[in-house]
Design a protein that fits this description.
The protein is mainly alpha-helical and 180 residues long. The protein has one domain: Hypothetical Protein Ta1238, Chain: A (Up-down Bundle). It is built from six helices and two strands; from the N terminus they run ββαααααα. The longest helix is centred in the last third of the chain and has 24 residues. It has a two-stranded antiparallel sheet.
Protein backbone atom coordinates (compact mmCIF):
# COMPACT_ATOMS: atom_id res chain seq x y z
CA UNK A 1 0.00 0.00 0.00
CA UNK A 2 1.32 3.43 -0.90
CA UNK A 3 1.30 6.03 1.86
CA UNK A 4 0.67 8.92 -0.53
CA UNK A 5 -2.64 9.52 -2.28
CA UNK A 6 -2.07 12.90 -3.96
CA UNK A 7 -5.61 13.90 -2.89
CA UNK A 8 -4.27 16.55 -0.49
CA UNK A 9 -1.91 18.26 -2.88
CA UNK A 10 -4.31 21.19 -3.37
CA UNK A 11 -4.61 21.90 0.37
CA UNK A 12 -7.78 19.87 0.94
CA UNK A 13 -8.23 16.72 3.00
CA UNK A 14 -10.98 14.19 3.63
CA UNK A 15 -12.78 13.33 6.79
CA UNK A 16 -13.30 9.68 7.69
CA UNK A 17 -16.81 9.74 6.19
CA UNK A 18 -15.77 11.46 2.94
CA UNK A 19 -16.39 15.15 3.62
CA UNK A 20 -13.67 17.41 2.19
CA UNK A 21 -12.30 20.49 3.92
CA UNK A 22 -9.32 22.80 3.71
CA UNK A 23 -6.41 21.47 5.71
CA UNK A 24 -6.60 24.65 7.80
CA UNK A 25 -10.06 23.66 9.15
CA UNK A 26 -10.27 23.51 12.93
CA UNK A 27 -11.10 19.77 12.84
CA UNK A 28 -7.71 19.03 11.31
CA UNK A 29 -6.03 21.30 13.83
CA UNK A 30 -7.64 19.40 16.71
CA UNK A 31 -6.74 15.95 15.57
CA UNK A 32 -3.31 17.08 14.46
CA UNK A 33 -2.71 18.14 18.05
CA UNK A 34 -4.20 14.86 19.28
CA UNK A 35 -1.77 13.06 16.98
CA UNK A 36 1.12 14.94 18.58
CA UNK A 37 -0.24 14.00 22.02
CA UNK A 38 -0.36 10.36 20.96
CA UNK A 39 3.29 10.47 19.89
CA UNK A 40 4.21 12.04 23.24
CA UNK A 41 2.36 9.31 25.14
CA UNK A 42 4.24 6.70 23.09
CA UNK A 43 7.49 8.43 23.98
CA UNK A 44 6.58 8.37 27.68
CA UNK A 45 5.74 4.67 27.40
CA UNK A 46 9.19 3.95 26.01
CA UNK A 47 10.76 5.41 29.17
CA UNK A 48 8.26 3.81 31.55
CA UNK A 49 8.27 0.29 30.12
CA UNK A 50 7.57 -2.19 32.89
CA UNK A 51 6.49 0.55 35.32
CA UNK A 52 2.97 0.63 36.81
CA UNK A 53 1.75 3.50 34.58
CA UNK A 54 2.84 1.99 31.23
CA UNK A 55 0.00 -0.47 30.41
CA UNK A 56 -2.71 2.17 30.94
CA UNK A 57 -0.79 4.59 28.70
CA UNK A 58 -1.15 2.18 25.78
CA UNK A 59 -4.89 2.13 26.36
CA UNK A 60 -4.91 5.93 26.40
CA UNK A 61 -3.11 5.96 23.04
CA UNK A 62 -5.86 3.81 21.57
CA UNK A 63 -8.50 6.17 22.99
CA UNK A 64 -6.74 9.17 21.46
CA UNK A 65 -6.88 7.48 18.04
CA UNK A 66 -10.56 6.75 18.61
CA UNK A 67 -11.23 10.35 19.61
CA UNK A 68 -9.53 11.53 16.43
CA UNK A 69 -11.81 9.21 14.44
CA UNK A 70 -14.87 10.71 16.14
CA UNK A 71 -13.70 14.21 15.24
CA UNK A 72 -12.93 13.14 11.66
CA UNK A 73 -16.49 11.93 11.13
CA UNK A 74 -19.44 14.26 10.63
CA UNK A 75 -21.99 11.45 10.50
CA UNK A 76 -21.48 9.37 13.65
CA UNK A 77 -23.55 6.56 12.12
CA UNK A 78 -20.58 5.93 9.80
CA UNK A 79 -18.17 5.30 12.67
CA UNK A 80 -17.07 1.70 13.24
CA UNK A 81 -19.08 0.05 16.03
CA UNK A 82 -16.01 -0.31 18.26
CA UNK A 83 -15.67 3.49 18.29
CA UNK A 84 -19.42 4.22 18.61
CA UNK A 85 -19.52 1.95 21.66
CA UNK A 86 -16.81 3.77 23.62
CA UNK A 87 -18.18 4.84 26.99
CA UNK A 88 -16.26 8.09 27.52
CA UNK A 89 -17.77 8.54 30.99
CA UNK A 90 -16.42 5.13 32.00
CA UNK A 91 -12.94 6.04 30.80
CA UNK A 92 -13.15 9.31 32.73
CA UNK A 93 -14.02 7.27 35.81
CA UNK A 94 -11.07 4.95 35.12
CA UNK A 95 -8.72 7.94 34.88
CA UNK A 96 -10.02 9.11 38.25
CA UNK A 97 -9.55 5.65 39.79
CA UNK A 98 -5.97 5.51 38.55
CA UNK A 99 -5.27 9.00 39.89
CA UNK A 100 -6.79 8.09 43.27
CA UNK A 101 -4.64 4.94 43.43
CA UNK A 102 -1.48 6.95 42.66
CA UNK A 103 -2.47 9.63 45.17
CA UNK A 104 -2.91 7.08 47.99
CA UNK A 105 0.69 5.91 47.59
CA UNK A 106 2.44 9.28 47.28
CA UNK A 107 3.16 12.03 49.77
CA UNK A 108 0.51 14.72 49.95
CA UNK A 109 0.93 17.54 47.45
CA UNK A 110 1.38 20.75 49.47
CA UNK A 111 2.56 23.20 46.81
CA UNK A 112 2.99 23.61 43.10
CA UNK A 113 5.81 21.47 41.75
CA UNK A 114 8.31 22.12 39.02
CA UNK A 115 7.76 19.79 36.05
CA UNK A 116 10.64 17.39 35.63
CA UNK A 117 12.25 14.41 37.25
CA UNK A 118 12.92 11.15 35.47
CA UNK A 119 12.60 11.29 31.69
CA UNK A 120 9.25 9.45 31.60
CA UNK A 121 7.77 11.88 34.14
CA UNK A 122 9.02 14.88 32.20
CA UNK A 123 7.38 13.58 29.03
CA UNK A 124 4.13 13.00 30.95
CA UNK A 125 4.25 16.68 31.92
CA UNK A 126 4.58 17.50 28.21
CA UNK A 127 1.54 15.26 27.67
CA UNK A 128 -0.38 17.23 30.30
CA UNK A 129 0.36 20.54 28.60
CA UNK A 130 -0.43 19.13 25.14
CA UNK A 131 -3.71 17.71 26.44
CA UNK A 132 -4.70 21.17 27.68
CA UNK A 133 -3.98 22.55 24.21
CA UNK A 134 -6.17 19.81 22.70
CA UNK A 135 -8.88 20.63 25.21
CA UNK A 136 -8.88 24.33 24.30
CA UNK A 137 -9.18 23.45 20.62
CA UNK A 138 -11.95 20.92 21.32
CA UNK A 139 -13.91 23.54 23.23
CA UNK A 140 -13.47 25.94 20.31
CA UNK A 141 -14.59 23.23 17.86
CA UNK A 142 -17.63 22.53 20.07
CA UNK A 143 -18.80 26.07 19.26
CA UNK A 144 -19.11 24.97 15.60
CA UNK A 145 -20.05 21.29 15.79
CA UNK A 146 -21.63 19.09 18.41
CA UNK A 147 -19.05 17.42 20.64
CA UNK A 148 -20.19 14.83 23.17
CA UNK A 149 -19.99 16.44 26.63
CA UNK A 150 -18.46 13.21 27.96
CA UNK A 151 -15.55 13.63 25.53
CA UNK A 152 -14.92 17.12 26.90
CA UNK A 153 -14.93 15.74 30.45
CA UNK A 154 -12.59 12.93 29.40
CA UNK A 155 -10.03 15.27 27.83
CA UNK A 156 -10.18 17.56 30.86
CA UNK A 157 -9.55 14.65 33.22
CA UNK A 158 -6.84 13.25 30.95
CA UNK A 159 -4.59 16.24 31.61
CA UNK A 160 -5.10 15.73 35.36
CA UNK A 161 -4.19 12.07 34.88
CA UNK A 162 -0.93 12.96 33.12
CA UNK A 163 -0.02 15.25 36.03
CA UNK A 164 -0.63 12.48 38.55
CA UNK A 165 1.10 9.87 36.37
CA UNK A 166 4.16 12.14 36.13
CA UNK A 167 4.23 12.51 39.91
CA UNK A 168 3.82 8.76 40.31
CA UNK A 169 6.59 8.01 37.79
CA UNK A 170 8.94 10.15 39.86
CA UNK A 171 7.73 8.52 43.06
CA UNK A 172 8.28 4.92 41.92
CA UNK A 173 11.72 5.89 40.62
CA UNK A 174 12.70 7.55 43.91
CA UNK A 175 13.01 11.00 42.35
CA UNK A 176 12.05 13.80 44.75
CA UNK A 177 9.70 16.50 43.44
CA UNK A 178 10.90 20.07 43.52
CA UNK A 179 8.42 22.52 45.00
CA UNK A 180 7.92 25.93 43.53
Amino acid sequence: MRIYTRTGDEGMSSLFDGGRYKKSHLRFEVYGELDLLNVMVGDARSYLEGKPTEPFLEEIQRLIFSLSSVLATEDSAKLPDRIKEIDWAEYTRRLECNMDAYDEKMPELKSFILPGGVRGATILHYCRVQTRKCERLLVKLSEEVEIDAEILKFINRLSDFFFMAARFANFVNGKEELGW
